[in-house]
Amino acid sequence: MKPETLSRYMRSFDEIAKLDFVKARGRLGKTFNVSDELLITLVGVILGKQKMMLNDFFTELEIRGIYLDRSSRDHFAELLNDRNLLEKMSDSGDAQYVKPLF
């Protein structure tokens, strides 16, 4: 690509990222944030019509470039549980499955 095209693309990407996705996190620098609605949309995209273990789902998110820290994973599990999309197979909560949307 031409340098002019690259500079225009990067500038627009930065502008779009600043609107909603990029947040300053102190010493961590800038991080991308994903809304709850986007995560629920990704559940539908990744799962289709089959259920998947929660840890495998996090791996699928990482394949798509979305890395969640421990607190974000806990928040996501609570979000799924609140929307009745998390199925726990044991009392200890070891085996947790993400249910498909439909």
Please describe what this structure looks like:
This protein is an alpha+beta fold and 102 residues long. It folds into 2 domains: 1-33; 34-102, Arc Repressor Mutant, subunit A. It is 52% helix and 14% strand. The protein has 4 helices and 5 strands. The termini are far apart.
Helix/strand order? HEEHEHHEE
Structural class: alpha+beta
Taking the alpha carbons of the first and last residues, their distance comes to: 42 Å
CATH homology group of the largest domain: Winged helix-like DNA-binding domain superfamily/Winged helix DNA-binding domain
Helix content: 40-55%
Main β-sheet, spatial strand arrangement: 3-5-4
Number of strands: 5
Can you describe this structure in just a few lines?
This protein has 102 residues and is α+β, with helices and mostly antiparallel strands. The chain has helices at 3-20, 36-47, 54-63, 70-82; strands at 22-24, 30-32, 52-53, 86-88, 96-98.
Task: Describe the structure using short key phrases.
alpha+beta, 102 residues, 52% helix, three-stranded antiparallel beta sheet
Question: How are the SSEs placed, and which strands pair?
Answer:
Elements: H1 3-20, E1 22-24, E2 30-32, H2 36-47, E3 52-53, H3 54-63, H4 70-82, E4 86-88, E5 96-98
Antiparallel strand pairs: 1-2, 3-5, 4-5
